Fold:
Amino acid sequence: MRIVLYAENLQPGAVLDLGSAKVSKEEILDFGRRFDPLPLHTDEDAAAGSRFGGLIASGFHTAAILQRLVVDAVFSRAAIIAGREISSLRMRAPVRPGDVLHGAMEIVEVRPRDDGTAVVRSRGTLINATGTVVMELQGETLWEHRPTDGSAGGAT
Structure:
């Protein structure tokens, strides 16, 4: 039986632990070269001369890390339909090679709709090993409610 997390399992104020991810120099360079080819993300010598003093991850790379942690820890076992909105994305501190980022997702609001779905507003954060918040994201996703016909698996 597949365990599924439904909208009614989510309570405002709940904080879900997303686990951690280590960021490698190779990942920063690869993502930068493919999607955000600024010297800060692709050229170690140029980055060393920048105000950051070295190579840093693209903000979009950092957001992708948060997304991966959310999918692995929550969305992969959830009755989620789709993302709806990112209302705020703040890159608060640089992410450097070797950083270990820990993720959390706080449920801010669950708004049931008449069509058997609910809009879930949440806040995601990534924090490095020194306790510095490196990214905050607020957004909305669309979730299913538990079916009333008994066809669903148990919730966690």
